[in-house]
Amino acid sequence: MGLMDTFKQLGDLKKMRDQAMEVQKKLSGIKITVEHRGVTVIMTADQKVVSISGELDHEKIAEAVNEGLKQSQKVAAEEMKSLMGGVPGM
Predict the structure, then answer these.
(1) CA dihedral 48, 52, 56, 62 (to 10 degrees)
(2) pTM of the full predicted structure?
(3) The domain at 3-85 falls in which architecture?
(4) Over the chain, what HEC string results?
(5) Taking phi first (over 0 means left), then psi (-120 to 50 degrees means alpha), and beta for anything else, what does residue 37 get?
(6) Residue 89 and which of 10, 20, 37, 70 are 20 to 30 A apart at CA?
(7) pLDDT band at 87, cuts 50/70/90?
(8) Which residue has the higher pLDDT, 13 or 74?
(9) 3-state DSSP call for residue 48?
(10) pLDDT by residue (tens digit) across 18-29?
């Protein structure tokens, strides 16, 4: 492996890092709202809870948060697919 190959790999890694940071920033701006059994959870697609309101029953809150997490994972997976589509060998 020559020096130019090393520089190309470093450039590719930087590009991937920049793309990942861009996706992370985009995910933090996407809001997901889940209404489940009287509890409303708003979270970002990067899985940060913004607010919880409604019936404050621990079991119902846990169910609503878990549903929000599931939905945020789907959104994140779709965003990552677009990133991985541009990465050679992925």
Answers:
(1) -30
(2) 0.70
(3) 2-Layer Sandwich (3.30)
(4) CCHHHHHHHHHHHHHHHHHHHHHHHHHHHCEEEEEECCEEEEEECCCCEEEEEECCCHHHHHHHHHHHHHHHHHHHHHHHHHHHHCCCCC
(5) left
(6) 70
(7) low
(8) 74
(9) coil
(10) 888 888 899 999
Q: Retrieve residue 17's tokens.
A: 């890092």
Rounded to an integer, what distance in angstroms lies between the CA atom of residue 49 and that of residue 68? 9
Domain ranges of the chain: 3-85
Per residue in 27-74, pLDDT tens? Answer: 999 999 999 999 999 999 999 999 999 988 999 999 999 999 999 999
